[in-house]
Structure of Glutamine--fructose-6-phosphate aminotransferase [isomerizing]:
Amino acid sequence: MCGIIGVTGAGDALDILLDGLERLEYRGYDSAGIALIDSSDIYRVRVADGTHSVSILREQTKDAPPGCVTGIGHTRWATHGQPNELNAHPHLDCAGDIALIHNGIIENYAELAAEMVASGHTLASHTDTEVLPHLIEECLLTSDGLVEAVRKALEKVRGAFAIGVVSLAEPDLIVAARRISPLIVGTAGNASFLASDIPALLERTRDLVVVEDDQIVELRPGSVKITDLEGNPVTPRPLVVEWDVEAAQKDGYDDFMTKEMNEQPRVIADTMRGRVESSGRIFLDQLDLSREELASITKVSIVACGSSYHAGLVAKYAFERWARLPVDVDIASEFRYRDPVLDSNTLVIGVSQSGETVDSLQAMRQAKQSNARVVVVSNVVDSSMAREADGVLYTRAGPEIGVAATKTVLAQIIALELLALRMAQVRGTLAEGAVAEVVSELWSLEGTVQEALARDEDVAAVARELVDARDFFFLGRHAGFPTALEGALKLKEISYLHAEGYPAGELKHGPLAVIEPGCVVVAVATGGEMKEKILSNVSEVKARGATVVLVAEDGDTQAASLADYLLMVPRTSTLLSPVKDIVPLQQLAYHLARNRGLDVDRPRNLAKTVTVE
Ligand code: F6R
């Protein structure tokens, strides 16, 4: 997830770009860059300095050539290639005559890059993006100008993109295009603008239109022309913006947590993008473990903290069922201080959104000393854990600003399940047809989660009914157990209410004693395999006077008859059920916290990244 901006026709293009990039930093901040069309050159500056990137970029462009009217800018959240200056956008072609910014993921970049190198191009970075200016340079040889060249180039591209391209040969023109990744364009007087999001442009214009998938835009001073890929004109969809900049950064939602929950469908698709080949082979690009190395693994050990630990617990069921591998899942701060039995045939998977959590980092280092193969599932490219691991699987969720993990947890589950499927393929423990079925369900989760999110008002109504409750038990069995743990953690951290997650079958071994009227039991009663059993556990708490909230699947009348309140979710297979069952639990925590007037983005006593023991 990156932020892009472009302007042509304004006397102060550089200021517009820098101001816009500041407004876009919430989309990514590991590096930033701009390119301006000067009279005979493309002036380009790129900075990779984390959260300071845009302010340093402002410093470093103080001596930019004055009076440039056309330029593009980018703020990056890396998905391919380290967050360094070399990989920062804009990227150039070989001649340095074309500059390009990109938000998205080019799925077939490896094959396109090989094609470009074979045609004599030199690629300087490790990004998926850089192939695009070279492809456009190549297409220009047989095209009548930049617009046609971009159109031809995009015919070859698979994946998600919003791009802005400038060329020295047509100095007033920016060509933009979109597939999946967001893009808006607009005008004000003689200036025309493009951006990934509204906040970048709000101070310049509210005369905006949304570019749709597979549309190409020609931005010239004061004019914007939108066509489809074949060149046919299209009628643009105007965008009515009533937000201020802060509301726009939150996409109009009240807070980042809601925005990030609503990004979950996109994040699921992005985490899969380019990793499942049409042949059905799972291709985990940066994992860096050969088929032989994967085949030699006899045990998996997952280490993580907090919500990432819950994602690891969900994955355990998939590794065991699909790949028939024994799996331990440990809380990193415990793993560090026991004496785990690891060897070179153990695959240790560190799961960490930030990649900086000190307990997870230390656990990973300890595992390396035992000669285990260590891989990391992280949301931050080049984080400490990513740098030190033997291989990485990035979650591509984009920056998560709310302290409570939401979209990154779902992305971790998807990434881990892809890895479990890959292991199953290598070990031959799952028939190709069965792999294809899981892959197809994984793709469908984008829509399933969208549907779950759309039921927010039903969850809000339940939260209103529970406004006086102070004690919550979250119960689940099988894959529903980590879901219950995650539901309890979300509720605790943002609402400050007492909540415990428990395996439902353990209830009668102690916790049942505290169940009494006034207690709320939230039970995850999905996942066909264990449903009967969990419903019988629910009867036990109901008989003791607890208020019962059930997460149940559409059409489940049996669950409906037991519940005081229902949180209905779409149906899925058991192993993938946490991906959608977590959603109403996030929403429940959210509404209970908001009803108590709390700041859901910044819960007390907590930090987004925990770098102390
Ligand atoms: C919960 C939450 C924390 C993190 C934990 C691990 O909502 O955000 O429990 O999951 O601190 O952080 P990472 O994944 O960065 O290692």
Notes: The domain at 456-595 is CATH 3.40.50.10490 (Rossmann fold).
